[in-house]
Amino acid sequence: MTAERVPLSRARVLGAAVAIADRDGIAALTMRRLAQDLGVEAMSLYHHVANKEALLDGVIEVVMAEIAEAVGEPVVEDWQAAMRARVLTARQVFLRHPWAARVLETRTSISPGVIAYYDGVLAIFRAGGFSYDLAHRALHALGSRALGFSQELFDLSDPAADAEAEAMVQELAEHFPHLAAMVAEIAHDDPDSALGWCDHQAEFEFGLDLILSGLERLRAEG
Amino acid sequence: MTAERVPLSRARVLGAAVAIADRDGIAALTMRRLAQDLGVEAMSLYHHVANKEALLDGVIEVVMAEIAEAVGEPVVEDWQAAMRARVLTARQVFLRHPWAARVLETRTSISPGVIAYYDGVLAIFRAGGFSYDLAHRALHALGSRALGFSQELFDLSDPAADAEAEAMVQELAEHFPHLAAMVAEIAHDDPDSALGWCDHQAEFEFGLDLILSGLERLRAEG
DNA sequence: ACCTGAACACCGTTCAAGT
DNA sequence: ACCTGAACACCGTTCAAGT
């Protein structure tokens, strides 16, 4: 936008890429569009990122740096409260960048930022008295939830699917009685769905607490 | 391959698409390649699927039909054992189609096959004495695990990342002492990683059972 | 009704050339 | 060292035309 004469740098390229994805979605993030926003030819980008995949790797590093700053140093007392706070803080960053979860999942190489985040998670587990074996299984049990997001495969309260889904559920109510009954019973009037897939705060916290308290039980048993 | 004179049909198109993804990965599934495998021009496909997105929708329906056949009618006694069996059976199908989980997550429209699967899940919860409210929260807690898969964001035992990751972990051991220690302690010699993301059977079952037993506790409390 | 061929508007990326 | 312009090899898709 401004600062036309600032020379291109990796940081400027990645920053502009995040801005495009935030504003217009991840599909809008093309090399040509990115170059245009930077006032440069597309090919100039290749001096700062090796290719499109490397660009996406870099964009994830930006997001993970945001998370690292937000969560700070791992707290080492009351592991369950510390984990809960860490995850919910990270989640706020993903709510700001709804495209980031999907990009993160498509990375093939290991991201140093993700590694650093998980090392902090492990620090909390260890301080809470977990063996490395239990901590390892805990990481698997949490999956992406450790980073603050969890995909739902369909969303009955998705505002985007409103008309279509409502008609569909209506139409299919006779075939799928349980789903129809559940939808009818549950008042879904809180519109705080933000991650594209259904991921309401209360429901995320329910799943998180269910896993954390299960882990605490296993830890206490030794 | 064979059957050159069989007229094109939606079923043949979707079957060929699944075969391409299974054999050469989801990136190989292009309209042109699909047409070529069917001995037809690319544009002919558009008489049987509206566009590429509709093709992917259809491909998911094929996978969900495989799952529906594999899981059968929902069992209605011992909800926990029934859910466990249903999920692990569905998981087998995803292990046969490693690309399917990612495609499923990118669907924007609701898939009838997924709806039907979840209706069966709800039938099991209800027969086990769950309220619709608890069943709803249970679906969120399980997330994609209800369908048999869970993405891990990085995989320390991924054979593909072997050399690179090992060197990296080595190099970064001083910065990430907990991860390094955990990797060193855990004997990762079972090579049954199959879904691309780390998703070993034992670790999947650990997470699944942790959630299911947590849900049982909540159900018993009323 | 079903299939075709050429064409269009996009991609990411290579390469030789400029400063 | 950094950036450019043209070009290449791909995409998904439109359209008018064939049978």
Automatic annotation (TrEMBL), chains A, B:
<dbReference type="Pfam" id="PF00440">
    <property type="entry name" value="TetR_N"/>
</dbReference>
<keyword id="KW-0678">Repressor</keyword>
<dbReference type="InterPro" id="IPR003012">
    <property type="entry name" value="Tet_transcr_reg_TetR"/>
</dbReference>
<dbReference type="GO" id="GO:0003700">
    <property type="term" value="F:DNA-binding transcription factor activity"/>
</dbReference>
<keyword id="KW-0804">Transcription</keyword>
<dbReference type="GO" id="GO:0000976">
    <property type="term" value="F:transcription cis-regulatory region binding"/>
</dbReference>
<dbReference type="Pfam" id="PF02909">
    <property type="entry name" value="TetR_C_1"/>
</dbReference>
<feature type="DNA-binding region" description="H-T-H motif">
    <location>
        <begin position="30"/>
        <end position="49"/>
    </location>
</feature>
<feature type="domain" description="HTH tetR-type">
    <location>
        <begin position="7"/>
        <end position="67"/>
    </location>
</feature>
<dbReference type="InterPro" id="IPR001647">
    <property type="entry name" value="HTH_TetR"/>
</dbReference>
<keyword id="KW-0238">DNA-binding</keyword>
<keyword id="KW-0805">Transcription regulation</keyword>
<dbReference type="InterPro" id="IPR036271">
    <property type="entry name" value="Tet_transcr_reg_TetR-rel_C_sf"/>
</dbReference>
<dbReference type="InterPro" id="IPR050109">
    <property type="entry name" value="HTH-type_TetR-like_transc_reg"/>
</dbReference>
<dbReference type="InterPro" id="IPR009057">
    <property type="entry name" value="Homeodomain-like_sf"/>
</dbReference>
<protein>
    <submittedName>
        <fullName>TetR family transcriptional regulator</fullName>
    </submittedName>
</protein>
<dbReference type="InterPro" id="IPR004111">
    <property type="entry name" value="Repressor_TetR_C"/>
</dbReference>
<dbReference type="GO" id="GO:0046677">
    <property type="term" value="P:response to antibiotic"/>
</dbReference>
<dbReference type="GO" id="GO:0045892">
    <property type="term" value="P:negative regulation of DNA-templated transcription"/>
</dbReference>
